[in-house]
Design goal:
alpha/beta; 2 domains; about 240 residues; 5-stranded mixed β-sheet; Nucleotidyltransferase, domain 5; 4-stranded mixed β-sheet; about 30% strand; 12 strands
């Protein structure tokens, strides 16, 4: 098997794309570079994304500038994909758009497989340490991590949340606090907001509603005895029995 076909198999590419070159570079640093391009079978499979169109008559308009994505290391060496993404054009409405790469992660610099491995590391250690292991700056990793957090939070379902823990934490030196609400049964953070006043409970109540939950469904709440928290719980979580921790 020639290297290009082997690497195409590792990338799980279908007939719409192919690896046209597999190179090992030593300067400025050692890395594998896989050069990928689309095949002619891509175009019949596309439809116009314009909601009022949806035409299947799609052709190649041009290509974007070549760019790279960091992939999982191969044989212990940094591995990147190089591709000039095709830009498609609808024959009917003339809309032009860039075709998304099937390996694209949530961050524009990484593949999905690389992001999955990175997230596994970042779950177990500080982001900076994960960056040292991966050979990536923590700024890029933080940006990618936050993209995953935003998407996961947007799709979170709080309909089964009934037992909640509330606590304040100091963001930095001085009186700069966050109030954190956690699902005590699901062992997950539900919501965090600035401050530690009673209105943080109002914010939490609205957040529950955005995720199929309801403040009146909360039956137990663990929190400290601050006057602000007692007021917030009484006004917003009226059905909750309070356990002071």
């Amino acid at each position: 098997m020639i290297p290009e076909k082997a690497f195409a198999g590792l990338l799980q590419l279908d007939e719409k794309r192919e690896v046209v070159a597999a190179e090992f570079e030593t300067q400025p640093a050692e890395r594998f570079l896989w050069v990928v391009r689309e095949t002619t079978t891509l175009w019949p499979s596309l439809r116009c994304p314009e909601r009022t169109c949806g035409c299947s008559g799609v052709v190649c308009h041009d290509h974007a500038e070549p760019r790279t994505w960091r992939h999982l290391d191969a044989f212990g060496k940094r591995t990147e994909i190089l591709c000039a993404l095709p830009r498609a054009r609808c024959k009917d409405c003339r809309k032009v758009w860039t075709v998304t790469a099937p390996w694209q992660g949530k961050g524009k610099h990484f593949t999905r497989d690389f992001e999955a491995f990175s997230l596994t590391l970042m779950r177990e250690m500080p982001v900076k340490r994960a960056g040292e292991i991966l050979g990536e700056g923590d700024t890029r990793l933080w940006r990618m991590l936050m993209a995953h957090v935003r998407d996961a939070h947007a799709s979170a379902d709080f309909s089964d949340v009934v037992h909640v823990g509330v606590d304040a934490m100091n963001r930095r030196k001085g009186h700069n606090y966050l109030t954190v609400f956690a699902d005590l049964e699901g062992r997950r953070v539900l919501f965090a907001t600035e401050g530690k006043d009673h209105w943080t409970f109002e914010d939490f109540g609205r957040e529950l509603g955005r995720h199929n939950g309801h403040p009146h469904a909360i039956t137990r709440i663990a929190m400290d005895m601050s006057a602000a928290y007692r007021k917030g719980a009484a006004e917003t979580l009226r059905n909750a029995r309070v356990v002071y921790d």
